[in-house]
User: What shape does this take?
Amino acid sequence: MVDASLTMAVSSSFQRRKWVAIAIPAIIFAYLLYAAASFDVLGVAGRARMDNAQNLLSDFWSYKVSVIRDNRNGKVIAAIDADARYSFAPDWVKTQGDVTQIDLGDGNLVTYDAQGARYVVPGYGTISITAPNGKLVLDAPQPLPDWISASDTRVGVTTSAGRFIYTKSKVETQRFFAGWELFFFTFDSPFYGKSFAQLAALAFWDARLDPAQPNWEAMSHDVLTNSLWHHGDVLWAIFETLLMAFLGTFCAALIALPLSFLAASNMMPWRLPRFAMRRVFDFIRGLDALIWTLILVRAFGPGPMTGALAILMTDTGLFGKIFSEALENIDEKQVEGIRSTGANAVQRARFGVLPQVLPILMSQVLYNFESNTRSATVIGAIVGGGIGLLLTQAIQTQKDWEDVAYYLILIVLMVIVIDWLSGIIRRRLIKG
Amino acid sequence: MADLAFAPTPQKRPDLSEPQHAYLRMVRQKRLYGAVLLVLFLLLLASGFRVAENRNAGDFLSGLPMLGAFPSEVLSEGWANRANVPGLALHFVPSLIETLNIATVSTLLGGLCAALLALMSTRGLAPFPRLIPVFRRTMDALRALPDVVIALVLIYVLGGGPIPAVLAISIHTSGALGKLFSEVSENADLKPVEGLASTGARWGQRIWLGVLPQVAPNWASYLLMRFEMNVRASAILGFVGQGGLGADLKVAMQWGQGKYDKVVAIFLILFVTIVVIDRGSDWLRTRLTKGAQHG
Assistant: This one.
């Protein structure tokens, strides 16, 4: 009976497949459990600093204005980002003598006076702080909620309306507003506070504000030299990152192209050089970008050229492998045709081989350029160049998260634009 | 008699008197353009290199002889203390395992998210066809963020350790793999899916029984390729952030002279691991995409 054995075979094969379908997810799940245990996931969840996350997220969409009193001389300033260079007089801060009233909105009222400071929180009561002999004395309705942190030297209050911090040397009230203030022009620029329509009018047809230079020139100068956001430096850093990726990728392609002929079995009849070349490519790829970067930094010092060279090294190995594989897959007939006309090796390569492989190679190179713009950000962080450096610095100071947000957005935009451009070029290359 | 009124006018006919002439002129022109473009491109590279060199701490020519100095210093010290190296390499195996675990977990998690994102953004398979562009743009954004950047931000929130690295690499992986996965599933044959739908199969069953068997070899091949990349990425992440072999390497490098045998040991096991994983995944990938020899 044929049918019986066939049924047996089919059903046993089904049985096996069923087990595999259950076993593979089970193994993966067990592995993830092991990894979770070895990574101490629960510990991390306990240690997570959610207040940091909140700081970070609020800086993405808002800016803060701090009203600071220096407790030693009683001077009060209201400034953006707590930086005295950007001080101004907001209408929600009123000063009379040595009493300052700050209206945080929704009934939240902060008062600085000679004795200390008071904060009226609606629905809770009045938090009053005095410093009679160098020690802070807190008077607030008991028990203290967890949004008030108090010690002898520092009292902090965080509400939805803002943040209030009292230390011996100063008292600071922070209020948050949506948007990134001073993003284009700082207070010292004549263009500050103008609407978009006004700016357009100034740029195109209105009279010069400064007779020495046209308005659009003054405007771009003021934007680029913005002392809070440093747009000029940031743009230069983006350019440097792109430059690293560009130089690294295309120089690597230029170096790898002739070398890959030595590693392709149909171009290089002798085994030994072919084998040696392939091992060289393997070695270069195997020594990771990280190791190359460290070696190169020692020789050339930090900077964008070192970053470009690090990309060049790793990509030479990669391109050597990809290119030689492409060369091995060419159509030999065209090479033969060229050979029959008496062409030498270089002429055969130029007219028989290159026209066949060039579109594929170019497309590969562009694809790598794309991914290298990302790597250049990372390598920049190690070698100290480009936007990667600015970003790691901004993150490590743990203060200016609006800068981090700005750089992140720029990096994403940069990568998406390069993606899109190289996609267009690649499609044209492949279609011819 | 032929009707000459419809014949092409003599002036408009292509000049066939000297075919080689026209052809050669075209070829020459094309080559000229090609040469000009090439020269422009090389000039661009050279000037770009000058700019980068000016911003660099050391310049190219004076650095070139130094290139061998650091490796030879490290290697000679490593060679002098070669007796220590195997022991040290063994000592760093737990870090290596952590690095590999980071890479594996993030490849698995990222692959899972990528599979979901890919299915959500494939025409004909997506359960919510209206949302296809939303899922595509999500993948683009996830792909655009470099993993180190995500990791540094996460370290600030979650503290040190391997978890920020895992999350960061997973996020990047789900974007990058999602795109590749969706390209594969776009080309999947929809007939099995229709067949299953006609028997009343739910969406999950249609995907599990109709689509996955078709795409599994290619997806697994991409997953392996990503795993290779993620091993490298997790080493770099360790160096920039915390955790695994990269962090050990950073510490050993900071000790400088006298600890270079550690550096050699770490370089060695990193190199061997990467080469072994590359080779293994190469072999597996050819098997997956071309099929095993016995069919």
